[in-house]
Amino acid sequence: MNCREFLGHVAQNCSHTLHSPNGTIESPGYPYGYPNYANCTWVIVAQEHNRIQLVFQGFALEEDFDILSVYDGQPSPTNLRTR
């Protein structure tokens, strides 16, 4: 497990890359709650000009604390698609 310090707490770093045309992304600990201070990044790699479709079958965040951001390319304000 890769960890980093976040406001005095140990944060789990869960980063993954998906290269296949189909796949499932799950939070650490699924189907139970994810750990506090988890910092997860999933990169979905597709061939140029291919469309990526995200379908959420189940989704829960801690209100006013957790964030989901979707970027087209590297994380930057100009690549942000939804938050």
What does this protein structure show overall?
The chain is an all-beta fold and 83 residues long. 0% of the residues lie in helices and 31% in strands. The chain has no helices and five strands. Strands 1-2-3 form a three-stranded mixed β-sheet, with no helix packed on it. Strand 1 and strand 2 form a beta hairpin. The chain is globular, with a radius of gyration of 14 Å. The two termini are 27 Å apart. It comes from Labeo rohita. This is CUB and sushi domain-containing protein 2. Keywords: Disulfide bond.
Highlighted features:
CUB_dom; Sperma_CUB_dom_sf; Spermadhesin-Link_domain; 3-stranded mixed beta sheet; mainly beta; disulfide bond; two-stranded antiparallel sheet
Topology, please?
Elements: E1 2-6, E2 9-18, E3 39-44, E4 70-71, E5 80-82
